[in-house]
Write a sequence for this structure.
């Protein structure tokens, strides 16, 4: 069995930065809260809980002097204001690329454009972006984009993990009905590289495994992209989800992982598969064809 | 035989305005030149010649006091400057919608965007737009758009008669590789309405006739659109081009005409067909199903 792991699999720069900031804060021994899940990965969250991180859904019980981590997805200015009013100490781990989307969206609004956010209205990143604007439009499907009326002006930003093909179709639709269209392509390059690589790898292997939280937006998109080119694609959270029957008559397995999937979870899967197929090509040819020893 | 004439067939507002300005100037009895063809319609040009208009390809022999008409396609500022230096009197019949493209393209350049013109680089309108810019990019095919490298910023305007589908595809391609994309959809509404109507009419009739100059960009595009939905589409300049064999086993004929096709040329074709099929449904049901008596 040949196992190929995508070079781009796992933590992106922004997530790695947020997790490191969280762990640094915990090491300082402070009473540390995280508003929402730091990243959309259940297993990493469990690890952080063991290290002392407290996860909260709302700000009700926060007290003066508590430390609050803002996760990589970012929040609206209203949340920051409320945290400051409560006298908490804020560790802002918002991904700088997401901060850049906030700034671009506000710039568009200042320039007089109604602003459309392309992305999932229920995702914390989109909620955070929308929170920086007066009256944003949000669209997550082509039907919603088509329903937008003809407009003289429109500014567009997008969720950093948006599917590139949806983005292209949405902009094409908008171009035909907006007289002046200003678009910031704010898809993170980590996202587009990961998506391109997933598509390519999925087309070359017999079975494709996509590792990451079921609640992770970018992992789910990787899975959808992979599935569209290779029906034998499976979204797993850990090695426990793997079923041996998936690999019947397969000679190669491709692996990728979302931007919120820690390296140690990917390692577990690769090690598990290498034990499973230890008599096969794996041991002879090396585990990772494409990682170049990164794993 | 049922004959349906598209409501939008024939002169657009800008062309009608240019022809009226030319005729008004001729009526004043001045020595009147037109730089290039006033409109891309051989038969209208012949009529204007008979009225006394002189058509020239260059400014060499112009003298102080001559009157020069700038056609609806517009020209570059360099031409206007040269005409002024020669002491000629300028009648600027540039379509106000084309002037608007000049202004938008210059605005983009002033704002720091490299400017891409989507359109035919050999068409006088595109040459005129390009003449207002320092170093414009021009693309007329999807291959040319795809060859544009990744860019931080790009501003886009387009030829007023551009095919809407090409425009959408081009913008979709650009959106994926330009970080900040500002697009002015400068396709004239007369053009997009005409194209939509041609597509719709062509799908409903057995044979489709598109009337207009073979050198008319917008007529040729109407023909291409019509041909893509109805293989029995024919581009004609006048009734003399019509072949009876085209209508074998046909029960309906659709007619549209480019923005540079005079009403009298359309009338000639409709009258010729109504004579040809005088025993048919035509006389009973009225010549024009969709013109609402406009013809």
């Amino acid at each position: 069995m040949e196992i190929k792991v995508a070079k781009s699999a796992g933590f992106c720069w922004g997530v790695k930065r947020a997790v490191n900031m969280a762990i640094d804060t915990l090491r300082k021994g402070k009473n540390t809260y995280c508003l929402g899940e730091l990243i959309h990965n259940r297993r990493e969250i469990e690890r952080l809980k063991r290290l002392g991180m407290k996860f909260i859904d709302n700000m009700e019980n926060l007290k003066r002097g508590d430390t609050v981590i803002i996760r990589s997805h970012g929040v609206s200015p209203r949340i920051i204001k409320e945290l400051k009013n409560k006298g908490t100490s804020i560790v802002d781990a918002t991904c700088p690329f997401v901060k850049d989307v906030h700034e671009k969206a506000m710039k568009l609004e200042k320039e007089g454009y109604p602003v459309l956010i392309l992305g999932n209205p229920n995702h914390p990143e989109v909620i955070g972006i929308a929170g920086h604007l007066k009256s944003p439009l949000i669209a997550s499907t082509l039907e919603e984009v088509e329903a937008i009326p003809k407009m003289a002006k429109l500014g567009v930003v997008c969720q950093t993990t948006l599917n590139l093909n949806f983005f292209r179709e949405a902009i094409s639709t908008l171009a035909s009905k907006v007289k002046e269209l200003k678009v910031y392509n704010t898809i993170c390059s980590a996202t587009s590289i990961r998506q391109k690589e997933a598509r390519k790898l999925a087309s070359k292997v017999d079975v494709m495994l996509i590792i990451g939280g079921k609640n992770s937006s970018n992992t789910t998109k990787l899975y959808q992209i992979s599935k569209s080119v290779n029906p034998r694609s499976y979204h797993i959270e850990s090695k426990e989800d793997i079923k041996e029957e998936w690999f019947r008559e397969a000679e190669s397995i491709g692996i990728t992982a979302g931007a919120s999937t820690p390296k140690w979870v990917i390692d577990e899967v690769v090690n598990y598969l290498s034990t499973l197929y230890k008599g096969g090509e794996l041991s002879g040819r090396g585990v990772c064809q494409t990682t170049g020893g990164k794993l």
User: Anything to note?
Assistant: Residues 280-295 of chain B have pLDDT under 50 and may be disordered. Residues 13-95 of chain B form a domain with the Rossmann fold fold (CATH 3.40.50.11270). The CA atoms of residues 40 and 254 of chain B lie 22 Å apart. Chain B is about 40% helix and 20% strand.
